[in-house]
Write a structure and sequence with these properties.
Blueprint (H helix, E strand, L loop, with lengths): L19 H5 L6 E6 L5 E5 L12 E5 L1 E3 L3 E3 L5 E7 L4 E6 L8 E3 L5 E7 L6 E5 L3 H11 L24 E4 L11 H9 L3 E7 L19 E5 L1 H12 L4 E4 L1 H9 L10 E5 L14 E4 L8 H8 L2 H13 L10 E5 L4
Parallel strand pairs: 1-17, 3-12, 3-14, 4-11, 14-16
Antiparallel strand pairs: 1-2, 5-6, 6-7, 7-10, 8-9, 9-10, 12-13, 13-15, 16-17
């Protein structure tokens, strides 16, 4: 059985089109579906009660990557979505135009970009900008906008696509699993004895348009796991406490930092790790994540945490209970629990 064999359909009204703070005046005002990894049992709750499911000594690992305004428009209105930074002046991008190698794209302020390559594995092209470094990022933050998919009701500002704790710019799309976390919630978790650690993974595009989704194998993402986080996790493991990843990006970063001897190491680099149902998780015990589309590779990763039948049953329950999908939607917690 594969997830693709049992597709589910997300009703149109369950695509979250507004940020929670617009819907309900509070960022943390989202719902929480908690699922026991062993039994598949589902509990419905609110995200404000997250601490009820965590124990003193548990470790919550957050992705501190910050979203950049990844959409630019040429002077003749071609949309260019940044997908991956290759060097200081070269980016892989998704273009709304059928550009060919050698073509020049013209942007405002006399900025240009030359098409230098076309991927054979993806619809992405590689372009070299006429500016780089700080000059490029100044241009990007003045002229770029965040990626908006069609289910969003309005064009929200870049700040709507940030987690409160993000600090390192680089993600093409928001690592959104922790969006509902507020400083008040994080402080309350720490007061309960729950430890907080950080990694960084700059996420790429999640969708190529026209019913095309990225394959993680062909989408390297830069990540880093600092030594402080490694020590925090090692202590938790020694004390038999749970390590909970906030987001699939955190899982990908941590599991990519495991060496051939199955030890977590402080690491920085790029990862093409594709976690699937037969992947043995070395570091992460639990996962806090959003609700994903049936075609997304994220569901492959979730099936490494829980039996696919249990996972699909929970998604069907979420649809019946009208949970909201996507970056402004509700949250799913997969956790090992005592019976």
């Amino acid at each position: 059985m594969t997830l693709a064999s049992y597709p589910f359909v997300i009703p149109q009204h369950l695509h979250a089109s507004l940020p929670a703070e617009v819907r309900s005046h509070q960022r943390e005002a989202v719902r929480l579906l908690v699922q026991n990894r062993q039994t598949g049992h589902v509990t419905h709750d609110t995200f404000a009660h997250l601490s009820n499911y965590l124990k003193k000594g548990d470790v919550l690992i957050l992705n501190k990557s910050r979203t950049i305004p990844a959409v630019l428009y040429t002077t003749d209105h071609i949309e260019v979505r940044l997908a991956r930074k290759c060097s200081t002046d070269i980016w892989e991008v998704l273009s709304s135009d059928q550009s060919e190698i050698g073509d020049t794209l013209h942007f405002t302020n006399n900025v240009r970009a030359t098409v230098i390559d076309k991927s054979k594995k993806t619809p992405l092209i590689s372009i070299r900008f006429s500016i780089k470094g700080d000059e490029f990022y100044n241009f990007l933050y003045i002229n770029g906008t965040p990626i908006h998919y069609e289910y969003l009701q309005d064009h929200w500002p870049l700040q709507a696509f940030q987690t409160v704790y993000s600090s390192v710019p680089g993600s093409i799309e928001m690592p959104s699993a922790g969006r509902a976390l507020t400083w008040r919630m994080l402080a309350a978790l720490q007061n309960k004895g729950i430890k907080i650690g950080f990694v960084s993974l700059h996420s790429g595009l999640s969708y190529f348009e026209d019913d095309r989704w990225p394959d993680p194998i062909f989408q390297p993402e830069p990540f880093s796991v600092p030594v402080e986080t490694v020590k925090l996790i090692q202590t938790a493991k020694n004390e038999r406490s749970n390590v909970i990843a906030v987001g699939t990006t955190v899982v990908r970063a941590l599991e990519s930092a495991v060496d051939t001897n199955h030890n977590l190491q402080a690491t920085a680099g790029e990862t093409t790790l594709h976690i699937k149902s037969n992947s043995a998780l070395q570091v992460v015990d639990g996962l806090l994540t959003g609700f994903h589309e049936p075609e997304a590779s994220h569901l492959d990763m979730l099936s490494a945490f829980i039996d696919k039948n249990h996972l699909l049953a929970a998604y069907e329950e979420a649809i019946r209970q009208e949970y909201l999908w996507h970056e402004f939607g509700d949250v799913n917690l997969l956790l090992p629990m005592e019976n």
